[in-house]
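User: Could you write out the 3D structure of this protein bound to uridine-5'-diphosphate-xylopyranose? I've included everything you need below.
Assistant: Certainly. Input first, then the structure.
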Amino acid sequence: MKVCVVGTGYVGLTTGVSLAFLGHQVTCVDLDQQKVDMLNGGRCPIYEPGMDDLLAEAAPNLTFTTSYTDAVPGADVVFVAVQTPSAPDGSPDLRYLRSAAESVAQNLDHSFTVVVNKSTVPIGSGNWVDAILRESFAQRAERPAGCEFSVASNPEFLREGNAIHDTLFPDRIVIGSDNPRSLEVLNQLYRPIINQTFTAPSFSPRPDDIGAVPLVSTDLASAELIKYAANAFLALKISYANEIGQLAAKVGADITEVTRGMGLDQRIGSRFLQAGVGWGGSCFGKDTRALIATAAEYNYSMPIVQAAREVNERQRLIAVERLQDELRILKGRKIGLLGIAFKPNTDDLRDSPSLDIANLLLARGARVRLHDPIAGERFRREQPALAPYLSESLDDLFDDCDAVVLVTEWAQYLELDWSKFVGLMRTPILLDGRHVLDADRMARLGYKYLAIAG
Ligand code: UDX
Ligand code: UDX
């Protein structure tokens, strides 16, 4: 099939490259010329494991351009995956989506094109995009005869750092439209994934236990709500573990044991129960806010989702307070933060706990150093106010440090030669922000090991 993808961020790029890998003819359009040049040169603008290799394998079926005219005409499916950042009141800013829809409408010429909302949009946006498409299409001086189109929603569930795996071997595919023909086109597009008929890439092998991938084919509003409901649920699952974690600390329980014991109940499941400094990234914060904002439009409140957000915010503060309890005075103390990305295996800094913790510490007069195995360069570019506090080396970070916080559980940190660094510190306080280090081992090495929760 012929596919166009608008926006080559994490979502758009992964979608485009994966569909090209599966054999579809894909053209990705992005307004950012520099990004397009990089991608046409075979280089990936984001850090995502395996993406360079997939890009190389998919290259014969894949083109990048800044021109909608090169990308939209003839497409059976147009994915729109532009960013939808939060406006100050929490509602998503839909400017980019509007302008993308208008540009798509100006270039539609096919007998039937499905325009798919891949960006996370408020419930009801499918209808809104449909209205924009029809309006812009009607304003065209020349309208190709027999050109039809319809809007669908196809939310993504990929985790950064696992984007390729989550796209090729998903738990489910959700498609929503009020037009049966659109659903049929998307069903065809995803056949290779649904039936798992493609040869898996060597760097992302097919899981042994995967069968046919369930397809949820539903109406537009339901597909849109599934995305929000799923993300908010994952966010609140983590917040619940964090809330229990603080109680565990008070009653003298071990949160890792508690969540292990909970997670073995198959009704609960062990994933997304890891307590620590809490969630960040581009989706959980934005989607929970947007869900609350949508509900407010209907004069409805969502106290559970609201509480998940509050607990998450509190976790970042708790990290700072743990340090303050231990050091008594934060002013003038050197605190090292290990990890800047919001989670391992990505260089994405959006809503990263590390940034908030750094700012809270600076506000209390601490001297902060931050280190990340991959995200340092992006950090310097995107966070100019914090950039002077970047440590290029672990020696620099640990040297004369009063406390170190493990914020992002990069493998490099888990496998660190911790015995080498303890001697560099002024006071060997180690706050494990993710409950991933072996407390006894760290204590044997000479650290004063602290955890966020009990
Ligand atoms: C975005 C949203 O943030 C997320 O909520 C949604 O689920 C999917 O899309 P991501 O792919 O990570 O996530 O976004 P981002 O990295 O910001 O990429 C968007 C891309 O679209 C950028 O490359 C930008 O240059 C491009 N873009 C944006 C256009 O090509 N045209 C536009 O009009 C606007
Ligand atoms: C998420 C969703 O998982 C994905 O389905 C959606 O479409 C986009 O948003 P992503 O933000 O890439 O993906 O990362 P994810 O792996 O979900 O982690 C989100 C945050 O939660 C990270 O900051 C991570 O550190 C944190 N987390 C995750 C925990 O604190 N504990 C856990 O047990 C799991």
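Residues 156-160, 231, 234, 238, 272-274, 276, 278-281, 283-284, 342-343 surround uridine-5'-diphosphate-xylopyranose (ligand 2) (CB under 6 Å).
User: Perfect, thank you.
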